[in-house]
């Protein structure tokens, strides 16, 4: 597999390259130090796998989710492994919703990167043990202190996640756009969610849409 690695820290890139070189099944064909150089490199260098940091400074896409969105739109079939220091559960879900195949905690990359590459090569998802534990714990907390969305709020979230706009939902229920917007806002507030991407990730994780 031809691999591109992206991280703004040269030391991390050296470490990733060494791990990949040991992996015999992969060859590094390019390195990027930020979102801008990554998007430029992807446009000129064919590759089969992207291994990237989540949060890198850059002019174009310094926001990790926006960067992933750009990469995903341009290269929908290319598998992505994320190597990251963050452990925010909502962001983890949003990242998976963007189509990322594997997430590895930076501290565990030496032992887990080869396993992640193998999983992704076989078309399976992979998540670091520590990050998986954070997700399991969050799910357990949701079970015990589940934010109680009203039936209407749940329906609005489900319809939004299935691709309908606020105005289409308003037309469907014969209600005003501001009423539907308010229900969407209340649902997001109760769930502690601030972006549409996170809302869609929540809907997918909750089994509302597939």
Automatic annotation (TrEMBL):
Keyword DNA-binding (UniProt): yes
Gene Ontology biological process terms in this record: phosphorelay signal transduction system; regulation of DNA-templated transcription
Recorded GO MF terms: DNA binding
Domain HTH luxR-type: 142-207
Keyword Protein transport attached: no
Keyword field: DNA-binding, Phosphoprotein
Response regulatory domain span: 2-121
Modified residues (4-aspartylphosphate): 53
Domain of life: Bacteria
Pfam families: GerE, Response_reg
PANTHER family: HTH-TYPE TRANSCRIPTIONAL REGULATOR YHJB-RELATED
Protein name as annotated: DNA-binding response regulator
Taxonomy of the source species: Bacteria, Pseudomonadati, Pseudomonadota, Gammaproteobacteria, Pseudomonadales
